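The following block was generated as part of the benchmark described in Methods. Ligand: beta-L-arabinofuranose.
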Amino acid sequence: MYIFVYIYIKNIKIIYSMNNKIIKTTLALLTAVYLQPIFGQTFSWVADSNPIIKHKYTADPATMVCGDTLWLFTGEDFAGNQQNIHMENWCVFSTTDMRTFTEYPVPLRADEFKWSSGIAYASQVIERNGRYYWYVSTDNTGIGVAVSDRPEGPYKDAIGKPLLTVKDCFASKKQWACIDPTVMIDDDGQAWIFWGNGECYYAKLKENMVEIDGKIRQVDFNGFVFEEAPWIHKHNGKYYLTYSSGFPERTAYAMADNIEGPWKYMGILNELAGNSSSNHQAIQEFKGKWYFFYHNGGLKGGTSCSRSVCADYLYYNPDGSLKRIIMTSEGVSQ
Ligand code: FUB
């Protein structure tokens, strides 16, 4: 409490010597950086440009729409000159207009998964029967699932053990092959999970969302290069599998008439993300528009290990193929 009072007084002194716009921005940042972690309240801001989150480093976006709200889930990168990606928690944000965003107190930390390495790699949340299931990767200890009754959490480990481990990645040699889960519930109610690094796997999920149903299979990419970050979505009856390809990573995509393939390689969707060797996307329809979320190293102090989430528009061609993403500084809020 002493430290907090000291910071408070020090900041008030700084604020008094500034003009109005700077005061507002400074107050917002101070709220986000100091008050939110201490008191756990929400924090809102207008995201008027890319990156959309500027008060912390965020990576690996995943999205979900519930009613009139878009929920955005990310990992939280450390600031500074990190040599490796190191994340220990995930974050949650909401928006109803893609302009004003609200952040909620940290809803899930990697150490919630007692069996894990404590590393917070890419993840995705999905709703079923009024509950929210958060599929997470933990670098080399597997994929876990946490559950909550509210999108903003808090979330609890749903099964107390990994849902998938590297042993399930039967064609892989890398210890970190079991990462980057993406989940979708198809129109017939069947839930599917895809994941992987180097090789891409998929399986059915049971109705309870916390058990694999049947055999694990491998996506046949017909010779094209899958690195990681699969994301599955459906539009006008066609399935789209977007993923990171090569290294440094570009986002490529494939299309299919059936979720189990065969997949047709469709080319590059997004170029190298500025100042970041990884690239991780989420694709979401919201209020009649399609959005492409990704991360780059574009924030001040940003690097491949201190990344930032951005959003730009996604457009379809008349034949259902995707137009290449145009990454912008303005983003989608105007
Ligand atoms: O953020 C950690 C890892 O980097 C993710 O799991 C990958 O998709 C890449 O973004």
